[in-house]
């Protein structure tokens, strides 16, 4: 007998295990280690005895396997490791930075999906027309203009022409100051939204064009269903599967895009946490933060599968 | 042999009929030509030469794209940056193509545990944010151009494994492959003559699209300060340097940004055009 969800859970765990090993090994190749990261050029002034003591302190005197086990142990125990430069656990850092990135990702995804589907429908209505051309041009430019260019452009124009730069102030959580938080999230969310919208728009357009020719759409028109209802209920609904797939894939890129956008808009999120940690060569922080991203990513994939089943009752397994 | 010629000719003919495909090819060609110019030093100025008397000059007959805050010629720097972006992207995508096609075709053809292993491993990395993995790899390897190329190449390999493996699985079960096997042809011959041609078209399309993503990833990494190091120009770094200047010296931001956008637009159009031209099923529509 097969218990539902078990094989799925196992494959999720296997994926996370694979990523953890990969990330761990990649960061071990770093020339220089936590000691050079912490002391910089002063490392040369340390005596061999001091270096040996520091190696014990940072735990890098142990074998790779032991280091891996101790990292995974601290990850699973909820502390996620220890960030030496700030003297707190990575979990403490993550507790304040993860909500920022999640909020940003939600805003970006919602904006991207709404914008992408709207423009895709707008484009697909009359293929080959000038409005289709405009829609496709949007899709192409949104794909081709890098997020950092768009962000830099927005910051320059807003700050210098309108003297408006909410991200110059200290970051506010939505609970402290909802209005300020909204202003600080608006533009980075928009930049990510546009990046998500481009592929969603392209997928929507081609999926709609494929569905529009199906018999059931002709039947719906034939039996006198109002056009708007046909478009949403029959055409869009049956085109949703590829759109959801694309949105799920985009979520991953969105997490990556967050690194750049958070840096430019000075948001204290996961992306900046990873970037700072890379600069400071803090293995534990980089590893654990990337693992947190990986878990989010895997959860999104599971969610996508659940949504599939909601959209299309024919998918059983 | 003759049949093959007709097939290629048909694809080229079909490609040339699509306006967007031709526009894309022209854009990419222009970028490649200016990059080649930069390799041979045919730029108006040395990209790192500082013209102290001409700091932050706007575009003029002397400095086509103006100068930056060190008095360096933005035009020469943009060309050099484009060349570096293309070098990294082409190296990275070549690496990903070779690794990905080899593993993808072998996995699809061999099946069994080898296929399981390759698919599992590539699934792990397939959808994971490329720039994050690249970030980790670049952080561990270093800032030289080949480090960035290696990082992007490794990250993109799973995409090519998937694209190459798919058609192999379909074709493998077809009668003509089974017959070849019965006739006693070696696996190598079957792979080369019967399997590989089916993988060719989707891979070519994937190469064009991956090149465009690789350019975005490369410039993103150098924007974050993890790619090319100053004073060597790179498009991402130029945009990053332009942040405090853009308000009063727009040219420092606009021109490098424009070049990235043009080459990415071009590569995407080429990718779409190739997909239509190489896929007979799409031609009728």
How would you sum up this structure, described in words?
The complex is a heterodimer of chains A (317) and B (285). With 317 residues, chain A is an all-alpha fold. Chain A folds into two domains: 6-90, no CATH class; 91-311, MetI-like fold. Helices cover 75% and strands 1% of the residues of chain A. Chain A contains twelve helices and two strands. Chain A has helices spanning 6-28, 34-39, 48-58, 64-76, 90-124, 130-144, 147-161, 178-212, 215-222, 227-264, 270-280, 283-311; strands at 82-83, 88-89. Chain A has a two-stranded antiparallel ribbon with strand order 1-2. In chain A, helix 11 (270-280) runs antiparallel to helix 12 (283-311). The two termini of chain A are 15 Å apart. Chain B has 285 residues and is an all-alpha fold. Chain B has a domain at 73-268: MetI-like fold (Orthogonal Bundle). In chain B, 75% of the residues lie in helices and 0% in strands. Chain B has eleven helices and no strands. Chain B has helices at residues 2-17, 19-39, 74-110, 112-126, 130-141, 145-172, 175-182, 187-223, 235-242, 250-278, 280-283. The model of chain B has no long low-confidence stretch (mean pLDDT 82).
Task: Considering the chains and any ligands shown, give keywords for the structure.
heterodimer; A: 317 residues; mainly alpha; MetI-like fold; 2 domains; two-stranded antiparallel ribbon; 2 strands; B: 285 residues; 11 helices
């Amino acid at each position: 007998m097969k218990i539902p969800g078990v094989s799925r859970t196992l494959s999720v765990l296997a994926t996370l295990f694979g990523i953890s090993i990969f990330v761990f090994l990649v960061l071990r190749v770093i020339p220089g280690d936590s000691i050079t990261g912490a002391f910089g050029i002063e490392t040369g002034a340390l005596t061999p005895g001091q270096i040996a003591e520091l190696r014990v302190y940072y735990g890098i005197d142990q074998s790779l396997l032991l280091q891996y086990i101790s990292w995974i142990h601290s990850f699973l125990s909820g502390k996620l490791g220890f960030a030496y430069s700030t003297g707190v656990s990575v979990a403490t850092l993550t507790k304040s930075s993860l909500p920022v990135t999640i909020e940003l990702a939600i805003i970006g995804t919602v904006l991207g999906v709404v914008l992408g589907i709207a423009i895709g429908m707008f484009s697909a209505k009359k293929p080959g027309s000038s409005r289709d051309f405009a829609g496709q041009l949007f899709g192409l430019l949104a794909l081709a203009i890098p997020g950092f260019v768009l962000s830099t452009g927005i910051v320059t124009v807003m700050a210098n022409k309108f003297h408006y730069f909410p991200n110059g102030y200290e970051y506010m959580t939505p609970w402290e100051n909802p209005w300020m938080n909204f202003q600080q999230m608006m533009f980075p969310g928009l930049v990510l939204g546009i990046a998500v919208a481009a592929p969603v728009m392209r997928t929507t357009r081609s999926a709609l064009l494929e569905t529009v020719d199906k018999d059931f759409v002709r039947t719906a028109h034939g039996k006198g269903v109002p056009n708007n209802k046909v478009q949403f209920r029959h055409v869009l609904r049956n085109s949703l599967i590829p759109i959801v797939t694309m949105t799920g894939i985009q979520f991953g890129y969105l997490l990556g895009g967050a690194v750049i956008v958070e840096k430019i808009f000075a948001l204290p999120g996961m992306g900046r946490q990873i970037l700072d940690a890379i600069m400071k060569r803090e293995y534990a922080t980089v590893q654990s933060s990337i693992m947190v991203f990986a878990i989010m990513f895997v959860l999104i994939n599971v969610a996508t599968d659940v949504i599939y089943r909601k959209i299309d009752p024919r998918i059983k397994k | 042999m003759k049949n093959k010629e007709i097939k290629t000719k048909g694809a080229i003919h079909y490609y040339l009929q699509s306006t967007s495909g031709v526009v894309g090819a022209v854009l990419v060609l222009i970028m490649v030509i200016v990059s080649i110019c930069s390799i041979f030093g045919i730029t108006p100025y040395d990209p790192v030469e500082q013209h102290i008397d001409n700091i932050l000059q706007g575009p003029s007959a002397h400095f086509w794209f103006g100068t930056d805050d060190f008095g360096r010629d933005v035009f020469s720097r943009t060309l050099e940056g484009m060349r570096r972006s293309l070098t990294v992207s082409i190296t990275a995508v070549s690496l990903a193509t070779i690794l990905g096609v080899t593993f993808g075709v072998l996995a699809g053809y061999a099946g069994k545990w080898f296929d399981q292993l390759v698919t599992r491993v590539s699934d792990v990395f397939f959808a994971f944010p490329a720039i994050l993995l690249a970030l980790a790899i670049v952080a561990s390897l270093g800032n030289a151009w080949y480090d960035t190329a290696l990082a992007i190449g490794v990250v993109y390999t799973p995409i090519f494994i998937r694209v190459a493996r798919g058609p192999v699985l379909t074709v493998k079960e077809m009668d003509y492959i089974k017959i070849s096997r019965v006739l006693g042809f070696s696996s190598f011959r079957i792979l080369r003559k019967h399997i590989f041609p089916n993988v060719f078209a989707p891979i070519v399309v994937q190469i064009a699209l991956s090149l465009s993503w690789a350019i975005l990833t490369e410039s993103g990494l150098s924007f974050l300060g993890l790619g090319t190091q100053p004073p060597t120009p790179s498009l991402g770094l130029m945009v990053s340097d332009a942040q405090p200047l853009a308000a009063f010296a727009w040219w420092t931001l606009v021109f490098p940004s424009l070049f990235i956008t043009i080459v990415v637009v071009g590569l995407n159009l080429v990718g779409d055009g190739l997909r239509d031209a190489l896929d007979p099923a799409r031609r009728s529509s």
